[in-house]
């Protein structure tokens, strides 16, 4: 059986003029960093990587040792590539400019270095989410690459992907022409194409939401979940199953594999925030992947990828997955 590695796949993309060489190189470097993170994650207690750092990130969340380590791995791997102008991460207060005169590379990389970090210490799947944007053209002007350069709608993404560190380590990638899944062959040290054309089934009987927040939800979400729970006897006339891994990567990966709807609505716990998940690091890359796989992604009111970000660490409500279900709950928001 001939196997297509991620490198081979990317080379073919460049040969057929679908992916610029610089972007190919950037994805290769990110994939290499994900392999290194995978290695650290898999060491667990043996590597002394479990537990908290005792610090907080810009969003006031306690940082795990692996949050910080994964962030450092991604920064270091990408710092000298020449293809990037800057990076932004869930774990850094401000955007990071590649040292040297601006502009340098053509792209910007944004990432959630370790998603689902509450799962680390209990040995459940975690992941890395990333998104690639073009660096705005500044006509050769020098100076700091400010936060504004990153504030681009999700529709501007040129690539997005995630790595999932689970029973198998996989890299799922879109370059804007469908979604491919690569499984890490750890003996060879390479990602091998195993899922050629990932598609989200249009209908589903599975949902994912943190039910413990039910009393804080807004009316449309309460109504929809109540209908799901009524099963056969309710208006949707079928029984639904529920799953919640508490790592967006793992929940989205399941939806890409067998359909479903993922929801993290805004709620009354922190009414001033539009949701928990981060627009730039989580919602936009996952929305790009889901849409490229034939699914739908909204914040209940509009397509997530159409939202114009106003700040780097902006949050957003998320409803994504199988078309019929996402359209139903989005419709409930307008009633
Ligand atoms: O614990 P909760 O509130 O259910 O939240 C789970 C959500 O939080 C997140 O873990 C946030 O990600 P981080 O671990 O990167 O902060 C999502 O992956 C997941 O969907
Ligand atoms: Mg996350
Ligand atoms: Mg994270």
UniProtKB/TrEMBL annotation:
Alphabetized InterPro entries for the sequence: FBPase_C_dom, FBPase_class-1, FBPase_N, FBPtase
Alphabetical list of SUPFAM superfamilies matching this protein: Carbohydrate phosphatase
Keywords from the named record: Carbohydrate metabolism, Cytoplasm, Hydrolase, Magnesium, Metal-binding
Gene3D superfamilies for this protein: 3.40.190.80, Fructose-1,6-Bisphosphatase, subunit A, domain 1
Residues of the Fructose-1-6-bisphosphatase class 1 C-terminal domain: 200-333
Record: residues binding Mg(2+) 2: 112, 115, 282
Catalytic activity field: beta-D-fructose 1,6-bisphosphate + H2O = beta-D-fructose 6-phosphate + phosphate
Cofactor dependency: Mg(2+)
Localization in the cell: Cytoplasm
Enzyme Commission number(s): 3.1.3.11
Record-level Gene Ontology MF annotations: fructose 1,6-bisphosphate 1-phosphatase activity; magnesium ion binding
Segments forming domain Fructose-1-6-bisphosphatase class I N-terminal: 5-195
Pfam families listed in its UniProt record: FBPase, FBPase_C
Family: Belongs to the FBPase class 1 family.
Protein name: Fructose-1,6-bisphosphatase class 1
Natural source organism: Denitrificimonas caeni
Gene: fbp
């Amino acid at each position: 059986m001939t196997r297509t590695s991620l490198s081979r796949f990317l080379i073919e993309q460049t040969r057929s003029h679908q992916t610029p060489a610089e972007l190919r190189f950037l994805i290769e470097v990110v994939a290499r960093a994900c392999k290194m993170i995978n290695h650290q994650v898999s060491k667990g207690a043996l590597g002394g990587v479990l537990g908290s750092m005792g610090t907080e990130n810009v969003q006031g969340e306690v940082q795990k040792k692996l949050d910080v380590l994964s962030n450092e791995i991604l920064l270091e791997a990408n710092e000298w590539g020449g293809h990037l102008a800057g990076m932004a991460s869930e774990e850094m207060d401000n955007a990071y400019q590649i040292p040297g005169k601006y502009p340098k590379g053509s792209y910007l990389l944004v990432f959630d270095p370790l998603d689902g970090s509450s799962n680390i210490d209990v040995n459940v799947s975690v992941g890395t989410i990333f998104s690639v944007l073009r660096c705005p053209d500044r006509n050769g002007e020098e100076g700091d690459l400010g936060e504004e350069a990153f504030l681009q709608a999700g529709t501007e993404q040129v690539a997005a992907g995630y790595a999932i560190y689970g029973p198998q380590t996989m890299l799922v990638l879109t370059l804007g022409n469908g979604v491919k899944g690569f499984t890490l062959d750890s003996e060879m040290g390479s990602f091998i194409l195993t899922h050629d054309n990932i598609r989200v089934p249009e209908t589903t009987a599975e949902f994912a939401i943190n039910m413990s927040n039910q009393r804080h939800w807004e009316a449309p979400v309460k109504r929809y979940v109540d209908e799901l729970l009524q099963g056969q006897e309710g208006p949707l006339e079928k029984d639904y199953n529920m799953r919640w891994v508490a790592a967006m990567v793992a929940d989205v990966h399941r939806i890409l594999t067998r359909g479903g709807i993922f929801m993290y609505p805004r709620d009354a716990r922190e009414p001033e925030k539009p949701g928990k998940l981060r627009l730039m690091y989580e919602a936009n890359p996952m929305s790009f992947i889901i849409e490229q796989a034939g699914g739908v992604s909204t914040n209940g009111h509009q397509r997530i990828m159409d939202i114009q970000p106003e700040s780097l660490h902006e949050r957003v409500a998320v409803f994504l997955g199988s078309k019929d279900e996402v359209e139903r709950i989005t419709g409930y928001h307008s009633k």
